[in-house]
Design brief:
Keywords: Membrane, Transmembrane, Transmembrane helix. This protein is an all-alpha fold. Helix content is 69%, strand content 0%. It has one domain.
Length: 94
Amino acid sequence: MSQALPVGHTHAQRWRDPQDSLGRRLSDTLFIAAALLLLLPPLLAVIIDGANQTLVTVLQQPILWQALFTSLRIALGAGILCVVLTMMLLWEQP
C-alpha cells in the first residue's frame, strides 16, 4: 500500500498471476472444497438442531437480544481497534 492505486477505467480488468497453472488452480479449488466440507456440516447441524418448536419462544426473550447487542458492540469495538492499530503499524513503516 505504499503506492497510490490507479484511477480510471480499471474495474473491468482482472488480475491474473502469470505463474498460475491449471494444477495450482485445481489444488486451490480442492483445498477450498475440503475446507468447506470440514466446516459446513457441523454448522448446518447446529442450525438444523436449533430450528425446533421452541425457536419462536427463544426469539421473544429479551435477554437474547440484549446478549446479541452486547456481542455486536464488543465486536464492533474490537474491529475498530484492530483497524486503528493496523493503520498505525502501516504508517510507522518507512
